[in-house]
Design goal:
By secondary structure, this protein is mostly helical. It contains seven helices and no strands. Helix 1 packs antiparallel against helix 2 and helix 6 runs antiparallel to helix 7. The longest helix has 24 residues.
Length: 152
């Protein structure tokens, strides 16, 4: 079993004992998402820490998007709850890259692949090099936007 999954389970127990409803419900939700990922597909499998980080990242992204949607819809209380859940999940994710760090990684990948001359046609090649480097540490949409900006 992954050590991150163990940590999530023990933190859930701690949150329940402390009667921290937000943290407990958020951890329950993410542990359910991890279990669903484990049983998805043809065969049951144990997730590695990297896989668990992927699940955490997608769940955090869902919370950020929901918070924006609720705020746009005038439901600020619900938006605040989604933001608070995203903050709980952020505690378990690797440190996120800054915009400057993303820009530097993109410039490095463009130079490495020689994609500057090809323009936007080389976006897939650049993203292929970048994805393993930024996985779990930056939102894919932000990275893709920066690649488009630098190639365009």
């Amino acid at each position: 079993m992954s050590s991150l999954k163990d940590r999530l389970r023990s933190d859930l127990t701690t949150a329940m004992k402390a009667r921290d409803e937000l943290r407990a419900s958020t951890l329950r939700m993410v542990l359910t998402a991890i279990t669903n990922a484990e049983v998805a597909g043809k065969a049951h499998r144990e997730l590695t820490d990297e896989d668990v980080i992927g699940v955490l990242g997608s769940e955090a992204k869902k919370r950020r998007e929901a918070a924006v949607a609720f705020a746009d819809g005038g439901r600020e209380e619900q938006a605040a709850k989604e933001r608070a859940e995203a903050e709980v999940l952020a505690d378990y994710l690797p440190e996120q890259l800054t915009d400057e760090e993303v820009a530097a990684l993109v410039a490095e990948a463009i130079a490495e692949t020689g994609a500057a001359a090809d323009g936007m046609k080389a976006m897939g090649r650049v993203m292929g090099v970048l994805q393993p480097r930024v996985k779990g540490r930056a939102d894919g949409g932000v990275v893709a936007a920066e690649v488009r900006r630098q190639l365009g």
